[in-house]
Amino acid sequence: METRISELFAPGSGQNGSGSQEVGFNPLNGFGALSKKASGAKNNKRAKARTTRHSKPSHYPPYLPPEAEEGNIEYKLKLINPTQYRFEHLATQMKWRLQEGRGEAVYQIGVEDNGMLVGLSEEDMRTSLETLHRMAEKVGADITVLRECEVDYDSDDPRKIAEVLIRKVPDDQQFLDLRVAVLGNVDSGKSTLLGVLTQGELDNGRGRARLNLFRHLHEIQTGRTSSISFEILGFNSKGEVVNYSESRTAEQICASASKMITFIDLAGHHKYLKTTIFGLTTYCPDFAMLVVSANTGIVGTTREHLGLAMALKVPIFIVVTKVDLCTRATVERTVRQLERVLKQPGCNKVPLVVGGPDDAVAAAQQFALTPNITPIFTLSNVSGESLEHLKVFFNILPPLSNSKEQEELMQQLTEFQVDEIYTVPEVGTVVGGTLYSGICREGEQLVVGPTDSGQFHKLTVESIQRNRSGCRVLRAGQAATLALGGFDRALLRKGMVMVSPEMDPTICWQFEAEIVLLFHAKTFHKGFQVTVHVGNVRQTATVVAVHGKEELRTGEKAVVRFKFIKHPEYLKVGAKLLFREGVTKGIGHVTKLQPASHYHPTPPSHSEDDEA
Known about the structure:
By secondary structure, this protein is α+β, with helices and mostly antiparallel strands.
């Protein structure tokens, strides 16, 4: 799989959809269940069995996958007049599903536990939804009916199934948080799309919506993003966007939102590729949104950005913008071009074109469950065409990690990755980044490093902010800024970590990694220098040895020993690695560390000697 990703990085590669996988998708038949050609034989056998079982062979019921014990999806055939004991049991079950989905659960009403879509009459559906509403009130949650659909079963009366979203912010959190990295070629409309989504005003066709997103004067003058910026889109517990009010400050959005989508706006131009890679490897996005212009199709860095997201195993969906500038035939040609690339053996994805709100609901659920699914949206930032489908998708999109994984990370020792460093008047030194593991509280004592000499310095976290609003406790997986008071900024750099004093971090100059060379014009050999990205670490390293081979060519695998040239870094075995130098690119994971020495915490007062 990894070797085939190299096809996305080679110039002019893979335009024909050879090796494509034919997939049929019907969002209303089985609520978005997938039907693959490969499983056709099994489906035919099931169809014959059902034909003999029912008196109306042409109207056999579609199926969902059987209900899973774990996860946040619950099937209920009906919820009609439960006893008090049964009602308490149902409420407890809802709490469990909400916990599994980290604050979100989806109830399928009119569905048996084995996945059969039976449906309910109009009266039974109304009563069941009333019971569900009482259950949600009992646990302090809100419900939103996502969609209702008629099913053709063994009955002359119309029968319906309903899909309901239950949302409750966990007691120990301010809101649910998902991070989405925004990728795509220059001039594809990434910043404009974010401006329209987060500000609620359509673009004028000349880029007015994106002006508030730019951080530098040269970005406004050229219209090209060169730095990483963050935008937020908040939804309340009923699924309504809370950004669109007269006063749209970040603090107010955070206060009224129960779900927050944080967009990481990355650069599209090739000369800012290192910034884009840094954003993808450092900020740990949950999903990636690849923006493609309908009138130009797959050009420039589009294919490369797709390859980067796949190499880092970030689930990706595609948004085709500027449909107002093109004929319908041009839009369809761009979508077909995307489908061919996604079906290539290097990608092996299942494209899913979203044509309505029902498709958006099905796409959000299938996207989180099946990593091969790639939803494709077509919209306009000027006319607003199909923009609501993307908002529905973001509202329903569930988190990737479940509550158990979150709990395990929180029980580990504190580790905070330093991605940004600021000096704020009257506050002092401030660092921004992501808490990789553990819990961080105000007043906590941590150590930060490594310095050029491999040492760590003691510090105190004075205050914490998330999305520009105060926060007392930071939990694993959350991004925030930490105020460090009078700590000397000169002792800090991007790529450092702040860890618990009890941790024994491994500092290394040299490490080994199993790599795949995605693209290289000539041969990759000992002595070659590349820029290595591992999490928030970005530094030039020299290839010290290529084990078992003299040299590597495009698509080949090997275990390689690297050596940093400037200062030691904190790395972990198993961490994803990405390296580049000009057109040379490769991916892999760290397999072995060669520790430089064990760290010794040093008080900040000795910093001058350390740096010397």
